[in-house]
Amino acid sequence: MFELNKTLTYNAFLLLWEQLKDFLITLGDMGQVFVKVVKRILLLRINFKETLEQSKRFAYDSLPISLTIVGMTSAIIAMQLAPELAKQGGADYTGSLSALVMVRELAAIMSGFAIISMVGSSFASELASMAVSEQINAMSVLKVDYIEYLIVPRFLAGVLFMPVIFIISATFGLICAGYVSNWCADLSLLNYFTSLWHGLFIRDIFIALLKSSFFGGTIALISCSCGCFTKGGAKEVGLATTKAVVWSFLVIAVWDFVFASIFYL
Amino acid sequence: MSIEVKNLSKIFDKRYVLKDISFKVNNGETLGVIGFSGSGKSTLLKIISGILEKDSGEIIYPENSEIAMAFQYSALFDFLDVFDNISFPLVERKELRGKYSKSEIEKIVKEKLKMVGLEGIEDKYPSELSGGMQKRVGFARAIVTNPNIILYDEPTAGLDPVTSTMIEDYIVQLKKDLNAACIVVTHQLSTIKRAVDKVIMLYQGSIVFSGGVEELLSGENPYARQFVSASIQGPMNIATK
Ligand SMILES: Nc1ncnc2c1ncn2[C@@H]1O[C@H](COP(=O)(O)OP(=O)(O)O)[C@@H](O)[C@H]1O
Ligand SMILES: [Mg+2]
Hints:
The structure holds two protein chains of two kinds. By secondary structure, chain A is an all-alpha fold. Chain A contains eight helices and no strands. In chain A, helix 1 (2-42) packs across helix 5, helix 2 (48-87) packs parallel to helix 5 and helix 7 (202-228) runs antiparallel to helix 8. By secondary structure, chain B is α/β, with parallel strands linked by helices. In chain B, the strands form two sheets. A six-stranded mixed sheet of chain B has the order 5-6-7-3-8-9, with helices on both faces. In chain B, strands 2-1-4 form a three-stranded antiparallel sheet, with helices on one face. Chain B has two domains: 1-66 and 147-241, 3-Layer(aba) Sandwich (Rossmann fold), CATH 3.40.50.300; 77-146, no CATH class. Chain B starts with a strand and ends in a 13-residue tail after the last helix. In chain B, helix 2 (82-92) packs across helix 3. The A-B interface holds A 45, 47, 126, 130, 133-135, 137-145, 149 and B 46, 49-51, 67-69, 71-73, 75-79, 88-89, 92-95, 141, 145. The complex binds adenosine-5'-diphosphate and magnesium ion. The site of adenosine-5'-diphosphate (ADP) has 11 residues of chain B, from helix 1.
């Protein structure tokens, strides 16, 4: 009996330890990649052609799903909010509240989620399959710096284009919310947009843009470093992709908390 | 002298994968490396090409050497077509960037493709090519910078006998054209007979045979005899690690 208990506890700890180790290794890899990426950017060792290519891909791939998710989220919130506010005589605040909720929080994190599932996962699986088929090794034998060729462009695409995605989807979301309020609480569009205008603050928008940029860079960095250190075969490519997605979700949520604490506490 | 390896060792997970390996390959010479799967052949090539770090020993070659490697599964960039694959180092390597004009690159790619017997496939993607063609495009990419040291990892594995023979002839031809020192990792006796000048045999990370092709085939060395006769009985035991 004692033996059994010992092995069970031991195994549980072993499992936890393995996961912790995996966590620390990934963190180490990410830190390493980040330092290398920043160094190359500072030295202006940037492959513009690839950066353009990856940026196009980043924006095109994620925009439809970003628009859908952010549009739906804000429509749903308006659907819940507008009739209640109207009942309490506060219908005029629907626009302001939507702006607050969407610009400060939801648009960035929802488009972040969209980008993780569309772009982050494809960065990770693509680099992982390049790693296991020795394409990354081949690059280094050909004396081409894979950080500069593969990762810097993806990182820059994330940093530069996630704010763009944010702007477009937040705008779209707020328009959706206006029409939904009009539809389910008979709020006039003029009223909604006037109120919206009062709820928009330059500071909020800047913080949200900065946050989106952080999100975009983080997603690219996590996805690329989970991908490019993959060893093994098809199974490991799948695991790397899952790891990249899960990690990105977690880290984005933590970033969001950090940003809210710094700027709104 | 073109490349010399002295007392090279590599440890993975506390186990010697390569132990005290020494050999020398001159310009215009091809060394064959044979041995069971897992005997450390790919690791040896990866250390020479700089993909892996060695744990001890020396690798000596002239300072301005250009090392090329043809990978076992070709390792072609699947997001680029054949032209972009072959021209990749010319376009993307920092030291070479902007050195060649577009028409010069086109000429070089065409010439290298011709050296491996391929023409007019510049627009194809790797997934559209047969295994043998992928290997040859891999060769073309490897030699595009005129290397003087060429490493081949199982160049004929998984190919039909006729394609293998063709690949072996290209290995010989490229060595002559570039006056390179070549190292060919292989399982296949046909490749040893056709494309190789001398042989080392690895077993559990150590060299158990070193000599000419004749000597390998003569069967005097018990390890060599077991390998050549493909016998289960002999000094080497496949099951042990
Ligand atoms: N990155 C690595 N980490 C740990 N062990 C490895 C690694 N690469 C190869 N090995 C081990 O080293 C041994 C030699 O592998 P390899 O050089 O690929 O053999 P070969 O090419 O002769 O078949 C194998 O037992 C393999 O499991
Ligand atoms: Mg091998």
